[in-house]
Design goal:
Elements lengths: L2 H9 L5 H15 L8 H30 L5 H13 L1 H11 L5 H18 L3 H14 L4 H12 L1
Length: about 160
């Protein structure tokens, strides 16, 4: 495999970020397999630990952001939750995820807005869009070739 083919594969995004992150560890492990310094399984175990550490940091970060995002918590409760998550991160996040209500009033409001937006978007039909295009063409806002290309996109 040449360097040009590797670059082409990377530019096409064939390799995922996970594989790209693992390759240096595998090369390092393959160079030292069987020595007392670093074995192949040391690399595998290290990657597993890194995965769980990364997940723990992401959970901590999401809980941290969720505390700031919530409207139903007062400033004092936000400070308390932040301090708990900062000084005892693992248990603080676990306690927060257990205590946090599944659906807050803010979550319900956001879900209602999203469903209303989806409903409004679904009510626009192709016939309505064609009528608007015809009005734009008749008003001279768009030219006839533009009208035909937009009409073809709508009907496709």
């Amino acid at each position: 495999m040449s360097l040009a083919s590797i670059r082409a594969a990377l530019s096409r995004r064939v390799l995922s970020l996970a594989i790209i992150a693992v390759v240096p560890f595998l090369f390092a492990a393959c160079n030292q397999v069987g020595t007392a310094q670093l074995s192949f399984w040391d690399v595998i175990v290290s990657m597993i630990w890194f995965f769980f550490l990364f997940m723990a940091i992401m959970i901590w970060f999401q809980c941290f952001v969720d505390v700031f995002r919530r409207n139903d918590l007062s400033g004092a409760w936000k400070v308390i939750w932040i301090l708990v998550m900062f000084f005892i991160p693992l248990f603080g996040c676990l306690i927060y995820m257990i205590v946090r209500p599944k659906m807050t009033a803010q979550d319900l409001e956001l879900a209602t807005q999203a469903s209303a937006a989806a409903k409004a978007a679904s009510q626009v039909s192709v016939a309505d869009q064609l009528e608007k295009l015809t009005q734009l063409r008749d008003a001279g806002t768009i030219s006839v070739p533009e009208y035909e290309s937009l009409k073809a996109k709508l009907l496709a």
